[in-house]
Amino acid sequence: MQPLFMEPVFQEKIWGGNSLHTVFDFDLPSEKIGEDWAISAHPHGVSTIQNGPFKGKKLDQLWQEHQELFGNQQGDVFPLLVKILDAADDLSVQVHPDDSYALKHEGELGKTECWYIIDAKPGAQIIYGHTAKTREELAQMIQEARWDELFNKVNVKKGDFFYVPSGTIHGIGEGIMILETQQSSDTTYRVYDYDRKDDRGNTRELHIEQSVDVTSVPARANTLNISETKQGKSSVITYLQTEFFNVYEWQVHGALKLKKQAPYTLATVTDGYGKLIAAGEEYELTMGTSFILPNDIERWELQGEATLIASEPGKSLK
């Protein structure tokens, strides 16, 4: 079986820009592209397979019709979604529901996510968490627009990593490019949007009631237990191992040999270039290349000078 290489799915956003072209050399349909849905089976942007016997097939179709590729996992939907985001302007401050709330109110999975900072301009910041001690205080601070007092701001730089579980108030700041690994969900509740207007002059919708409902109060401290395993000059950095997904950074400096740890593995090249060797075949890797290693690929090797962010289904999904 071959790796499954993905065609990018681009999403135009009010805060998007052109960096997915200038950095990754993607051919963009407009100058306001905020997201590349790099690996997705979500109905709002489904990936197409670029190669092999399934070339031209959609990922959601493969999930339904060829479960053997994914280790015969249970579930109606492919559970993960990988994006590259280009924040040419500040994103809205937002929060996502957990599975229980989202399934009841939106009919889809909740949204726990995590961010790898591909690049960030000097002084770039994210909003990550809040200061309210009770749900009543949270609602009051939102009603009174006490944004500077409510939101926690964090400086970021290239190579930083953040875990953003459902219930976390967050916002990506201007000048940041990230690789986001998340549950396959498109449910977002906006808390604040800088009083911006859309291209028709309308203030964008906020979701205050839902935001207060789903926000974790007080804010949780999401401590990471990051570890690194060296292999010559190359290494594997383990960022997260959760019920939703496990996330790794593959640092390739020469060669890196890996073996299957889960029913399938997702990967995206965020920097550099090289090649993937799997099942006796070689595949070129460039910045922005995204692929899935299906269940029957037991071992693979990466060669070159590259950084990849990889993920796999978490323990509850295996």
List the helices and strands and how they pair.
Elements: E1 4-7, E2 9-17, H1 19-22, E3 33-39, E4 48-49, H2 59-65, E5 80-87, E6 93-95, H3 99-105, E7 113-120, E8 125-130, H4 135-143, H5 147-150, E9 151-155, E10 161-164, E11 170-172, E12 176-183, E13 189-192, H6 208-214, E14 227-231, E15 234-241, E16 245-259, E17 265-278, E18 281-285, E19 290-293, E20 299-313
Antiparallel strand pairs: 1-4, 1-19, 2-3, 3-5, 5-12, 6-13, 7-10, 7-12, 8-9, 8-11, 14-15, 15-16, 16-20, 17-18, 17-19, 17-20
Pfam families: MPI_cupin_dom, PMI_typeI_cat
GO biological process, one term: carbohydrate metabolic process
Protein name: Mannose-6-phosphate isomerase
Provide structural commentary.
- The chain is mainly beta and 318 residues long.
- The chain folds into 2 domains: 4-214, Jelly Rolls, CATH 2.60.120; 227-317, Jelly Rolls, CATH 2.60.120.
- 12% of the residues lie in helices and 43% in strands.
- The chain has helices at 19-22, 59-65, 99-105, 135-143, 147-150, 208-214; strands at 4-7, 9-17, 33-39, 48-49, 80-87, 93-95, 113-120, 125-130, 151-155, 161-164, 170-172, 176-183, 189-192, 227-231, 234-241, 245-259, 265-278, 281-285, 290-293, 299-313.
- Strands 1, 4, 14, 15, 16, 17, 18, 19 and 20 form a 9-stranded antiparallel beta sheet that branches. Strands 2-3-5-12-7-10 form a 6-stranded antiparallel beta sheet, with no helix packed on it. A 3-stranded antiparallel beta sheet has the order 9-8-11.
- A hairpin with a 3-residue loop joins strand 15 and strand 16 (245-259).
- The chain is globular and about 60 Å long.
- The relative contact order is 0.18.
